[in-house]
Amino acid sequence: MKKRNQPIERELYQTTSNENVKGHHSEKYIRPGICIRDYSPTEYEELAFMQPSDYQLIFGIKDSEGKRRGSQIVKITNPNNGRSIHRQYRTSYEIHGLHNYVSITFTAIKEIVNSKEEFDNLRYVQVSKGSRICYYITHPNYAVRISIYLGSISVILGILSFLISLLCLFI
Predict the structure, then answer these.
(1) Taking the CA of residue 139 as centre, how many other CA atoms within 13 Å lie in the half-sphere pointing to its CB?
(2) 51: pLDDT strictly greater than 70
(3) Distance between CA atoms of 15 and 33, rounded to whole angstroms?
(4) Helix spans in 18-121 (H)
(5) Coil/strand/helix, residue 35
(6) Is 100 left (phi over 0), alpha (psi -120 to 50) or beta?
(7) Do residues 12 and 126 make contact, with C-beta atoms less than 8 angstroms apart?
């Protein structure tokens, strides 16, 4: 059994909601596509689909132990250049017979590559436990990112105003 927080290598698949899309085709490689209809297409951007047994490898506890609180975040890293994204861990009953995979959307794959050639040749990624803060700061939905930034600024200004009021109290 691997240690907790140690990256695991998984084959990269492309998530799609369209059954007719079979994957990204290039001259050298065809990236397989996985059709999942459990979620709306806008939700796919936030998710990384993996097999249920990967949960224990990544987070160190079994998913069935009842210790899972909220959504769990995974960090998906391109081993060639070190670029990474954070997504929510999910499984789907629609995926059968696949092992050692991670499936993310086309735009998520584009975020971890530097060029079209690298996009075409990327077959494997490393997956590890991710950070909830990094997930929300780099969230694929613009409205979520803005609310995190505005909330952070509000907290900082609140602390600053509290300190100024304490300073004025002692002067």
Answers:
(1) 16
(2) yes
(3) 6
(4) 41-44, 54-59, 106-111, 116-121
(5) strand
(6) left
(7) no
At 76, which amino acid appears?
I
Instruction: Return the structure tokens found at 23.
Output: 């994957």
**Which residue reads 């613009």 in tokens?**
142
Q: Quote the CA–CA distance of 22 and 162 in Å, as a whole number.
A: 57
Per residue in 67-121, pLDDT tens?
566 678 999 999 999 999 999 998 887 787 788 899 999 999 999 999 988 998 8
Cα 2 to Cα 108: distance, rounded to the nearest angstrom? 26
Cα within 13 Å of Cα(137), Cβ side: 7
CA atoms of 159 and 79, how far apart (whole Å): 40
β-pair partners for 73 = 88
Q: Give me the pLDDT at residue 5, please.
A: 63
- Model-level pTM? 0.82
The DSSP 8-state label assigned to residue 171 in this structure reads: -
Beta bridge partners of 170: none
Compute the distance between CA of residue 4 and CA of residue 96 in angstroms, rounded to an integer: 26
- What ranges in the chain are assigned the alpha helix state H? 41-44, 54-59, 106-111, 116-121, 132-137, 142-170
Q: In the structure encoding, which two tokens stand for residue 136, read together? A: 């929300």
